[in-house]
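REQUEST FORM: STRUCTURE PREDICTION
Request ID: SP-0412
Submitted by: Lab K.M.
Chain count: 1
Length (residues): 480
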Amino acid sequence: MNLADALDIHAKARPSHPALIDGDLTLTHADFAARVRRMAAWLLGLDLPADQPVGVCLGDTAQHVVALYALARAGRAILPMDARWTEEERRNVATHFGASLVLLEPDMQALPGLRCLVPDEASDADAAAAHFTSDADAPFVLSLSSGTTGRPKGPLIAHRHFLARFRTHWINLGLNARDRFVCATPLYFGGGRTFAMSVLFSGGTLILNPPPCTPEDLVGCVATQDATSLFLVPTQFRRLLALDDAALAPLRALNLLFSSGAPLSPEERVAIRDRLCPRFFEYYASTEGGGVSLLTPADIATHGDTVGRPVFAVEVEVVDDSDIPLPQGKTGLLRYRGPACATTYHRDPEASAEAFRDGWFYPGDLASLDSEGFVTLRGRQKDMIIRAGINIHPSDIEAALNAHPAVAESAVVGWPSLEFGEEIAAFVRLDHPVGPEELLSFARARLPRPKWPRQVFVVDDLPRNSAGKVLKRQLVLRLT
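STATUS: Completed
RESULT:
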C-alpha cells in the first residue's frame, strides 16, 4: 500500500479526531487528509520525473508534515534537507541526489541551478481528479545517513520498508491510534520524521514541540497536552536530568518514553527510568534498517549495559572480517536483516557493496551477543584505534573516564603517531571542575597500559549531529 492510504481511512473512520497540533493550529484527520491530497495534486501538476527525489527543506511545522505525506501520496521520493543548513550545504545535497525540486520556506533563497518552490497545500488543483498510485515498492525516502560533510549516503527506503517499521512501533513500543505523541526533535531527523508519520498512520495525534525548547517548556507541553508518548535523543535527556524531581513529575504519567539516535550510559538509563518515567525504553535503530533492538524497563536492571534484544522480525548476528558468525560474547561486526531494511544506497554502488551484502546490512557497529540475545555495542568499526598493532575500542576508555564523578561524558579518538601509528586522545565534558592530569591518572588506574590516553582535553561541549551522535571526525580535526 501507499502509506498515505491510511490517511483516507482515518478521514472517514474518525474525521473529527485531532491528527496534528502545531501551536494554535489543530487539524483533524479529515482536515489533514484533505490538505495532503491537495498538495499531492499540486505536486503531480508540476510534472516531476518519477525517478527523481524532491527535497524537503522546511521548518518543523504542520506544513512540513503535510509535505511528507503529500510526496508519499504523489509517489515521489522524499529527500530530507535540514532548514538549518547553509545554502551551500542545501545545494550540494540536492545536486548530489539529483532532486527535481526543492520545497523551501518563503524566506529562503532559491538554490542556483535548481527548481525551488514554496509548497502549496491550499492549491486549486483538483485532488478528486488526480490519479494517485498505491505501490508498496515505490521509493518513499532517501534518508541521509552521514550528514552533509564528506560524501552523503542516502539509503533508498520504499513504502513497504516504512510499513514494516511502523509494525515494529506497534508491536514492540506500543504506539497506536490512542496516542498523543509529542514530536520534540527536528522533522528532518530520521527519528523525528519516522515516529511522527507512524503516529499519523496509526490514527493517533501528533503534537509538534520542536527545538529550540527548554527542558521546562518540554515538560510543560507534556502536561498541558495530556501527552501519552515522547521520543527524545540523549542530549535532551541529559538536560532534563538536570531538573529536580518536582519539575519532572508530569513525565511520570507518560505511557511511553523512549530514546534513540545514540546510546546512553547504564547510569543514565537507570536515572531516566527512576526519575523521569518508569516506562522508559531505549530503541537502537539505524537510518538504513529501522529498529534493531529494544531495551525495556525491566531489562535495565539486569542488562543495563546493552541495547536490548532484537525487535520483531529482525535477525541479528555478530561476525568476523570473513563474515563468519562469532561465538557468544565475542566482539565483531554487527549485521542484521529484516523487512524494514533498505537494500541499497541511491547513486552509490561502492557504498552499497560495502554495507549491503548477501541480504544483510552492516551498519559499521562493533558488538557482541550473549546467550539471551542481548546486544552490547562496542563502538564503531571506523572508530577503532590501532596502537602499535593492538586493536583498541574507544568505548573502553570512555567507560573508564565516565566513571569519574566530575565527568559528564567523554569521546575518544585516534591521534596519528609516527611511533605507534595511533595514540589515544580523549575529549571530556565536565559536570564539576577537575584537571586533565587527574583524569589521566584516574583512567590509567583502570586501564591496561596499551589503552592509556596520551592526553585528555577538557571541552565545553562535544560536537553532535541532529541525532545527538558525537561527531568524532570533528574532534580528530582539532588534533591536526
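NOTES: The chain has a mean pLDDT of 93.
Reviewed by: T.R.
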